[in-house]
Amino acid sequence: SFSNLISYCSALTPKFHQFLKTFSTITPPNHLQWTNRLDLLNNVLSQRSCTLTNLLVLTSIVEYSLGNLFLTQTGGITPPHLLRDLLMADTLTNLLGETTIFLLRVLLGSPNGINLRNLVWHGFPSEGDVSWLYRNFLVDMLNSIGGKLEELEFVVEFRSCLQDSKLLVGKMNLPLFDVSLLEDVVTSSSEIQRAGWLRSIALYKEEQFYCCVCMVLPQLEMFLRILYGGLYGRDFRAKIDQYYIIMDTIFEEFEAVTEARNRMHDYFRIDLLEAMYDLLSAIRGPRLRDKLSHGELQST
């Protein structure tokens, strides 16, 4: 289970978890402008959303913001696509110091650490599985980095994909969505992580659409992973020493080992699978899931 995985990770990094306990309160966050995500951070600080939602938002902000630092410091070089590679870059270590980068690697950027970013964005934890101490730590870390940048008089160059997202919405011509239909399915289903879906629906009703999509995408991935695992008799849980089932595997037309037709294509209508693939994973598609998880879309 996810709880067992977190316990194992905690045993690997006991000093870090002892250190986390010092973040029972958040230092007044006066140095967050460098993230260019004050609207989302204000939502996190208001504690209106659950801890899991906050961590999805915060991990994406951390990645986006560090990418901006890399871009600025290198004079325009595109940041590494993966957070773990970004945190291995000497560029950030030289700018922010070894201690800051090491702490971020332990929590977010290494499969040998807690690997929190990947775990939450791939849908493994439920709300009760993650501590609010992680939220406090990430907010304090962003605030601390902002203070250091102000001392250095470092001016950050921002990246934004806001225009891309507006064009996408304009072209999709979506019909009106009846949230009550989804609510009925969620409350009557035994095959999904109900709490996460109900939280997503609540965010939708509150018109917190950015946070809603942040919650929905990992829930959808986990549902598909559980279904795929059931069809093939594979364990859908996250493990330290094995690759887990990813979206690319779920959408492939033919199963990699046997080269037989993917059973998911018999379970769903092909046009539905293709629509999900085009929207979420296709290299030349909008890659909504990818851009959102890497912090490249704004909330307005």
From TrEMBL:
It comes from Culex pipiens. Transmembrane segments: none annotated. It holds the Pfam family DUF4209. This is Endoplasmic reticulum membrane-associated RNA degradation protein. InterPro entries: DUF4209, ERMARD. Residues 63-145 form the DUF4209 domain.
